[in-house]
Amino acid sequence: MKSRKVLVGFIITLVFSLLLAACASEPEENSDSNSEKSTSQGGDLVIASQADAVSLDPHATNDTPSANVRINIFDNLVTQNEDMELQPSLAESWEQVNDTTWEFKLREDVTFHDGSVFNSNVVKANIERILDPDIGSPVAFMYDMITEVQVVDDYTVRFITEYPFAPLPAHLAHPGGQMVSQELIEEDYAAMENGEEPSSVINSNPVGTGPFTFENWQTGESVKLMKNEDYWDKPAMLNSVTFKVVSEDLTRISELSTGDSHIITPLSPSDVAEVENTDGMNVQRQESSSLAYIGFNMEKEPFDDVRVRQAISMAINKEEIINGIYEGAGIPAKGPLAPGIFGYDEQLNGLEYNVEEAKSLLEEAGYPDGFSATIWTNDDRQRIDTATNVQAQLAEIGIDLEVETVEWGAMLDQTAKGEHEMMVFGWTTVTGDADNGMYPLFHSENVGSPGNRTFTVDKELDSYLEEARQTADPEKRLDLYSKAQEKLVELSPFVYLLHQEYLLGVRDEVKGLTQLPTQLLQLKNVSLED
């Protein structure tokens, strides 16, 4: 069983309220027997997604389109429910044996899609692969506190950490911690010895223990999965799932309207009314663990001056962005963490909207007439509109802002190198724990590509984040995270804009669909109505 301290901490703080609106309509009461609909198992669910998966190797990428496919092929040791509470999956139970040792008891009735057995050796092989520098996994930072994986017996495994790390079970629920067939891992290493790139074997034929098996991937077009008839848990209701790449918003709406797709993701807030006003389809809403923000490059003038950063934060009306661009699908952010995340401080006082105070701060910083700067965004519809809105709002305090749209890959690379001044960005706290919501973004060791693209370096903040991840006492962690959030309001490396509400367009015949606050779709219990 889980240790009482950790369990209490998670239950108290990880509860996340769902807001699922406009559920699929039931048959009308007057329907005659010939027109009544019934829900039955089977069928092919088609999901129109904005982007294709990048990789089907869970250790190779950290993006949502890939994860949405992979969570159906692979399982984690630990999973999350709709309230972000941790639940058993491939691990039946876990406990913290001492400050630096966690013990997990594994299920004994699980086999991979290739027939190989899941056991402690598989867990050891997966974690060691993630941490292998030759693999270069972008999720290695999630597990780099693990110094050793000990196989106690076939179905008992221990993780030894460099320091006490309370969020380890939550990190093992991250999509990057999904378990891959050990036989496939060995084949992938063999291919590497023959000159192939890491992931080449796994990516071409992913093998997990999940409710669906891999069928085919037509790059840039679709990924198809088939029901795993031998799933260790309750089998899926669908026969298959097809993830179809449909990049244009309006084309996705058309797919939903014609029934060529059953679900479209994401649904733009601008298109909500059209879906809600069209027979046969509805909008599903989900509060999220995400943060939309504007980040500053704190190494460049004038953003190296905290008064300038605070002035910009105070000059931006977040409600105008939420209501005008996101159509109300979000709540204002005071700091980096969304409600429901362990460590979220509901008493936190953010910087309030105050244009006159913003002008005073700019004058105090030596910019009474403002200055010129550039803000970067990728081609996401809401982010471009946000940048344009902020451009107009900051003009009121004398800041002449140029909006530049940058290709997503180039934006990631160039912001990691510090070539930007301001940027519109986002982050999702996937684990439901404040460590994942702050440590990658603000600790000085993570400057650049690991996540700290504002180049925040502050010893006091570092100490809060380090101590919080190295103590098992939930109450002490909460206090440290509260102090860290207060410090981040003061430092203002971000303009904390909003916690977006995730939107899905869904055909009425889809039943049993849920979406986690991490944006990941839960498909095992989905059925299609006849």
Automatic annotation (TrEMBL):
Residues 85-448 form the Solute-binding protein family domain. Pfam families: SBP_bac_5 (PF00496). One of its GO terms (biological process) is peptide transport. PROSITE patterns: PROKAR_LIPOPROTEIN. GO terms for molecular function: peptide transmembrane transporter activity. Keywords: Signal, Transport. SUPFAM superfamilies: Periplasmic binding protein-like II (SSF53850). It comes from the Bacteria. PANTHER family: OLIGOPEPTIDE-BINDING PROTEIN APPA, PERIPLASMIC BINDING COMPONENT OF ABC TRANSPORTER. Belongs to the bacterial solute-binding protein 5 family. This is Oligopeptide ABC transporter oligopeptide-binding protein. It comes from Oceanobacillus iheyensis (strain DSM 14371 / CIP 107618 / JCM 11309 / KCTC 3954 / HTE831). The lineage of its organism: Bacteria, Bacillati, Bacillota, Bacilli, Bacillales.
